[in-house]
Amino acid sequence: MEIYNLPIIPLIVGVVELLKQLGLPQKWAALASAIIGILVGVFYIAPGDILKGILEGLAIGLAATGLYSGTKNTIGAFRGNKA
């Protein structure tokens, strides 16, 4: 995976947030993130190599899930400590 593909991670977070605003249940957000990551991997990152696209896309999708979860937990901790 090249460093130039890393900005895709917050983009996936944004797309999943949009899907949640449109009615996607919270419990499906991680799966949606992984699927979007795989699609990006197969069609954008490695269009000539399906296996590489799936693996790198899955890694990006799961990283997006972790970015969202980590940010949410950090903000929740700060808000909980200030109250």
Automatic annotation (TrEMBL):
The entry's keywords: Membrane, Transmembrane, Transmembrane helix
Top-level taxon of the source organism: Bacteria
Record-annotated membrane-spanning stretches: 28-46
Name this polypeptide is given: Phage holin family Hol44, holin superfamily V
Lineage: Bacteria, Bacillati, Bacillota, Clostridia, Thermoanaerobacterales
